[in-house]
Amino acid sequence: MLDPFHVEVGAIPFVVPLLRDGGRVFAGGSVVLAERLRALRSGDAEQISAWCSNYFDLADACITFEDQLKAQSDSSLLTGIRGVVGTSDGSCVAVDAAAVSRATNDDMRYFPVMDSETVSYGVGAAAVSRPVQSVVLLKYHDPYFIELSGDQFTSVAVKAVRRPDFVHGRDMEESELVSGGVIIHPVYRALWPAELVVPLVSETFRFNREEHGCNTSMGVYLAREPQGSAKMRAFCAGRLDYWSRLVGGYGIGDDDLRLLGVVESGAAGAAKK
Questions:
Q1: What pLDDT score was predicted for residue 204?
Q2: What pLDDT, in 10s, does the model give residues 58-92?
Q3: Structural contact between residues 148 and 95, judged by C-beta atoms closer than 8 angstroms
Q4: Which of 82, 85, 206, 261 is least surrounded by CB atoms within 10 angstroms?
Q5: E-assigned strands of 66-185?
Q6: Strands 128-141 and 145-148
Q7: Average pLDDT over every residue of 133-139
Q8: Which residues form the domain of 31?
């Protein structure tokens, strides 16, 4: 049987298909942060080191356009990546058409489907090139972001929030994230359920107070506001000693990204805990 968890380091467009070949899916915070919470509750030093002293880039999409943000949990726009395609107009990321359909609630008006393309992916000796069918090509500004048009941004099936309407760009106090068992920060609320976020906030702030003398944590950090077209990146869950920040401004093609691959049954089980 496959080990349910496997970490691969590298650029998202090149690593996600590699995880797929290994029988795993790119994991989001519903898995990673659930394991982090379990580690904090356990008090076990080895588990805390594994899940809290490492950063994890997540399959949770951070899509920005002008002053708007769409935060999509376990976005199939990311988990459905099949590789990179070279075109006469530059590099594109190929995403399964079925995955795009899920991310947009079947609104495919602005996502033309290509019958067949040859994609490249993998890291080092694991690099491969192979044909894929029924994919959508999205322009890839390597290593920074994947570009979406304004219409494509609108089609992504989550509600947009405006930057002036939430705290970002600094670390937060616990009361700015949750109150009375309810998530009050709209980005965390958009991404994950209260059953995960509320105890995670409590345990994270307790740990950081005790271990690092820190009273603020878990700030949301974004890249600058894009104009003309939307930009898709992936959120990153920072280490606890990096104030457990949720960062949506890193390059999606950076070579030092850490992706967690999880077998699909493991992903479903972790999400329920």
A1: 98
A2: 999 999 999 999 999 999 999 999 999 999 999 99
A3: no
A4: 206
A5: 68-72, 81-87, 90-96, 113-121, 128-141, 145-148, 161-162, 178-179, 182-183
A6: antiparallel
A7: 98
A8: 5-272
Residues whose CB falls within 8 Å of the CB of residue 131, separated by 6 or more in sequence, listed in order: 116, 117, 118, 119
Residue 147 has pLDDT above 50, yes or no: yes
The sign one gets for the Cα dihedral 9, 14, 16, 22 is negative
Q: Facing residues of 65 across strands?
A: 68
**Residues sharing a CB contact under 8 Å with residue 222, sequence separation 6 or more, in sequence order:** 62, 64, 69, 163, 168, 169, 248, 249
Residue 5 identity (one-letter amino acid): F
- The mean pLDDT of the chain is 95
Tell me how far apart the alpha carbons of residues 245 and 31 are, in angstroms, rounded to a whole number. Answer: 17
b vs e for 234-260, b when ≥16 Cβ sit within 10 Å of the residue's Cβ?
bbbbbebeebbbbbbbbbbbbeebbbb
Helix (H) or strand (E) holding 237: strand 230-237
Single out the residue of 98, 47, 37 nearest to residue 270, CA to CA: 37
How many separate domains does the chain show? 1
Chain Cα centroid distance, residue 230: 16
At 266, is the pLDDT very low, low, confident or very high (cuts 50, 70, 90)?
A: low
**Strand duo 113-121 + 145-148: pairing:** unpaired
Confidence class for position 273, pLDDT limits 50, 70, 90:
very low
**Cα 175–chain centre separation:** 25
Q: 50 is written with which tokens?
A: 């594994």
DSSP 13-67: HHHHHHHHHTT-EE--HHHHHHHHHHHHHHT-HHHHHHHHSS-EEEEEEEEEETT
